[in-house]
Every structure is written in structure tokens, then in C-alpha cells.
Amino acid sequence: MIFYHRYDRITLDFYLSHIYHDTNNMIKRDILAKIMPWVGKEKILVLKGSRQVGKTTLLRQIESEIKGCQQTAVVAYLSADDLDNRRFFQSPDALELYLRQRYGFPGNFIYLMIDEFQAIPNAGIFLKNLFDRNKKNVQFIVSGSSSLEITKNTEFLTGRALNFMIERVSFFEYFKYIQNLDIEVLSIEREKELRLFYDTYPQKLEMAFGEYLKFGGYPEVATTSAVDDKKLILSSISKTYIEKDIINFLKVENVAGFNSLLKLLAEQSGKLVNKNELSNTLSMSINTVKKYAEFLSGTYVVNFLKPFSSNLRIEITKMPKVYILDLGLRNYLLDSWNSETVSGDGDAVENFVYLTLLARRDAESIRFYRTIGGAEIDFLLEENDGSLTSCEVKYREKISGIPTAMKNAKERYPQKIKRQIIITKRTLLIDKDVWFIPAVLLPFVKW
């Protein structure tokens, strides 16, 4: 089915490339259900995420939902990243004049979508002033790809804005898309249904899992079939990120050093990060390493996972672990495309598990556990009720019970750790509060 979109004519490139789009080739994002209840409310909606994770597509989906409920609704789109639009963002008065001339403001209520809003000078104050003057007549729905700038700007929007983190396409969303399925996440208590689902789609799940481990969750990559095209898109994403975010926006001068750091972190995915060692390896000052690491985290390319600590004498490590936020980007950086190598890569699977957990919960609720003796649990999850869930990745054919580190942690914190999850290759077993779950099945399980 083809839809016609009435976006801003002045943003010509956007208009020509999006005047038609095939909704059958769009992955419906689960976060849409969290955003839509706030559409039409007196709130600024802020969609945060890396470049090319589908924020613009999500704006189009929001527009389609709005038009589905209100056929006469007025939806305007502007990209703050577009040089042709800079004049509209010179002042609140300039933008109001544009809306008046183009969309009949303030007579018509307008849903104004601003892409890459962090490119607006003093964006937070700019939006605050516009919101305070026009909240009865305009709802601002904005996107941004730098948490460094978004955090700085949204400080001015306290009480006015709601933030939504837009991740890459999850494996759950990807599998639903390629199989054209309408399914829900299954509760762990529904073990029979879970096992039935696993037994119904074994080959399809494994094939999709291998593809996802190799090429990741950037929407354009996920919706492209040809392998060479997927690689080309990942190359383009990487180069665009370096050019737009790192060189132009963050003004990094030592681009070669920045790239070397990114590749080193990709190699260390799932491992402890010693920034002093990185400094020595790269012949780069420790302050520069820290700054570049902050840039990588702030532009949603990597996350640094903090250790859990309640007993500093026992759990002493302060070093974080690092995870790349897209597996396709990781493999592009490492030039690692062999299917058998990737699918059997325990580090890649651990990274996948982290991304799956991140898609369901706040990043701050995820930690890892490590003792002075070196015993480690991959993930320690803080639940809403204050309890803890320990999670260890053992991606192998045979599992010989609960790992020792998990047993010891349970003995140390018997009242806190309520459940233990072992991520396996194929073993599915639910035994009270000890769960053995195949990695490929984890995205379909909730607790």
C-alpha cells in the first residue's frame, strides 16, 4: 500500500525520498506503543538514539497513527540538520512565522516533528520558549542522536519533556518482521507455550539468529536481503557517523586515533576495559581516551557496563565492561563475517544477551558481578521490587548445572538474588527460580 505524505516542501531531499514509502517494508517498532499514549498531550516527546536507528521512520509511523485517528490532522516535519532549514531555527519568532505561513498556525493544531534537534543552537532554551508560548497549539515531537547534547539541552525541559530511547531493531522485532508474525513476549510461567513456540520454529529461529549475530539491527540493514548490500550499508553508517558526529559535530581532530579506539573496544566486547592500558596501546593520553570513550557512549555506539558492588572488600573492581550497541557494526569493525565463526562466538552471543536485556529495561538496572578472586557473573539485574536476577551466558551444547560463581553469589545474597538465569545454546529448562534458556529464545521471554 502506498501513502502520500505532506511534509515540508522546502526540505527537498527529504520530501523527494519520502513522498512515497512502502509500509510493508517497515519494521513496526515496539516502542511505538509507549509513545502513542502521549501524542496530543502537553508534552515535548524526545526520541533519542544513534543515527540511522530508525528515528525518522518512527516519526513517519507516528504520523500515520495520528492520521489514522484524525484524517485532517496537521503534521509538519523539519530537519534541523538540513542547512536549508537553519533560518527557521534562528529564533522562536522565525519558526512561528514559518508555521503561520505554511500551516495556518495558530488556527490549526500542529504536530511539529523536528529531526536531529540537537543541531539547533541552544536547542533546550529554544524549545522551552516555544513550548511555553504554544503548548495549546503545537505538540513538539523531536529526535536527537547525541546524548551529550540532548542531556545538556533537556535540562531546560524538566517537567515539559518525555524521553524515549530508540534502540536498533531488536531480535524480537526482526523475527516478527521476517516471518510476518504477530506475537507477544511470553511470560516465563507459560513454559508450555514457550516450548511450543521454540519447537515450532527451530530452524527459522536459528537461521534468523545467525543473520542477526552477523549483521545486527540497523533497520536498513535488517530490511535488506543481499549480503553485499548489508555490508555496504554498514560501511556507509560507519563513515557517516565518523563524518557527521565525530568530525563535524564533536570536532574530533585525531580521527585515526578515535577509529583505533573504537576497533579496540569492538575487540574487547564483553571484557573489562582498562583505560590506562588503552592509553598505552594507542599512545594516547589517558584524558583523550576518556574523552573519546565518552563520545562513543554519548553517541550510542557503545555502553560501559558498571560492576555491582555492595561489599567493597569482596567486589573490588571498578573497571567497566564494554558492549557494542550493534552486532553488525561490531563485525564491520572487526571485518568478521564468517557465519560459523560469528554464530559460535561466545563474545558475540554475550553482546546479544546484553542488547536483549537493554531492550527491556533501564540501562542503570544492569550490572555485572566480579569478586576479588576473579569469579564473575555476566549480568546482575536489579528488578522493580529491589530483588536481583543473576544471568550467566554459557553458550554450549552441554550444561553441567548452575555455574559456581552463581551459586556463591546466591549464598552471599540469599535474600536479594531471587532467580538465576543460565543462557544456553539449546537447553530449555524451567526449575522454580533457576531457568536455562536458549539465547535465541531470550528475546521472547519476560519475567
TrEMBL record:
<dbReference type="Pfam" id="PF13173">
    <property type="entry name" value="AAA_14"/>
</dbReference>
<dbReference type="InterPro" id="IPR027417">
    <property type="entry name" value="P-loop_NTPase"/>
</dbReference>
<feature type="domain" description="AAA">
    <location>
        <begin position="42"/>
        <end position="174"/>
    </location>
</feature>
<feature type="domain" description="DUF4143">
    <location>
        <begin position="243"/>
        <end position="396"/>
    </location>
</feature>
<protein>
    <recommendedName>
        <fullName>AAA+ ATPase domain-containing protein</fullName>
    </recommendedName>
</protein>
<dbReference type="Pfam" id="PF13635">
    <property type="entry name" value="DUF4143"/>
</dbReference>
<dbReference type="InterPro" id="IPR041682">
    <property type="entry name" value="AAA_14"/>
</dbReference>
<dbReference type="InterPro" id="IPR025420">
    <property type="entry name" value="DUF4143"/>
</dbReference>
